[in-house]
Amino acid sequence: MEPSARARFCSECGAALKPESFQGRGEQILCPKGHLTLPPGPKVLVACFINCGEKLLWMKRGNPPRAGHWAIPAGFMENGETLREAAARELREETCVHIPAEQFSPYMLGSIDFISEVYLGFRASVTGEDCACGPESQEVGFFSESEIDWDNVAYPSANEAVKTAYREARDNNFGVYHGNYTNQEDRLELVWRPD
User: Fold this and answer.
1) Is residue 5 scored above 70 in pLDDT?
2) What is the largest CA-CA distance in the chain?
3) Is 103 in the same domain as 56?
């Protein structure tokens, strides 16, 4: 197993990594100075479904992949942060919207097997539409469902999730969902809804 482009050097000391057997667990990517670096695994993606009334917050992506296309604010969790902290940071970096981590509610979770990602969607409501472009966005704003150019959405496989969020924002009644996204199916199912 070769170290990926993201895992060529030890995050603790900077030494070049190499694959070795470790404690009978098969191939692991190890630092020659003794720091353990696990092999590349699924990435954790956090998404932010932020509503202001019936509108959701969108950003036009400034970076590849899908630069110039619209998406719900999202990004990858970093070392040393909780899931809610990751959501708050990504939201702040991409849209300049500041919401304390503890105000995020779990909303959608699932896996995207063909790109080895686990995603966790969080939601929060705001009372005003204040937002601005961060360094990774070309435009940001709150939009109603009818205002979205669905042909210019960065990740059409997420459209069902986004349309669910629009419906629930209109009804002000949010559930918790589980989704599976594979090359064969896009499935989103309700797991729980408060009474």
Assistant:
1) no
2) 57
3) yes
